[in-house]
Request: fold
Amino acid sequence: MRAKKSEHTPVRTICTIEARMRSTRLPGKVLKPILGRPMLALLIERLQRVRQVDQIVVATTDNPIDDPIVELACQLGTKYFRGSEEDVLDRVLRAARSVNADLIVETTGDCPLIDPGVIDQLIATFMSNPVDYCANLLSRSYPRGMEAQVFPVAVLAQVAELTQDPADREHVSLYICEHPEQFRLLDIASGLPPQDADLRLTVDTQEDFDLVRHVFESLYPINPHFSMSDILALFKRHPELRRLNENIQQKAVR
Reply:
């Protein structure tokens, strides 16, 4: 069964942010300060500029260690939901249901540089095509850290019934991506040259954080609404920045 969209039915679109304090390589990274503010706060600020999102929900865990994330969400007036630390799929699904969402834009707290314009493009593309899932990560054409995924709550609910595989439950949309025979998938390509698509703008390690902090410190004071194009221009002016985290390897999902 595939989720169907009606052109006449309003779609309530939310953006979920998966965030927790426990991280294998860089514990507490989502609240590490950049320009005197928690990294998660800067991400929320950027996501608030996505025109087609009705609400942002921080999907954190019910582990007491994540109380500071809840406190930050409350300070910012951002909705939050607490659920399972291991079953992230269930956490995101319940977070979406808690605000009566129809459509999920899935993001993670370790991608604070994500471009709101890229997300708006993904949502618009999803809404104008008969698909179950739209993303920009099925083929690596965007810098790592610019990824977002768009899919209906109904599709995620279907997936929750289909799999109990630990990897599927930890990586929310993995089952969707790995089963094109069941779901209609659409990937957006950036058209960027390989040297730009290979950039690592996500935060898993201290080296990653140092790079992202440098980007914010270079661009935010000049223009808080800086885009992916501004980031790429910064790297062209300062190619040495690539060396800060070029040796970091992304962890495999399986």
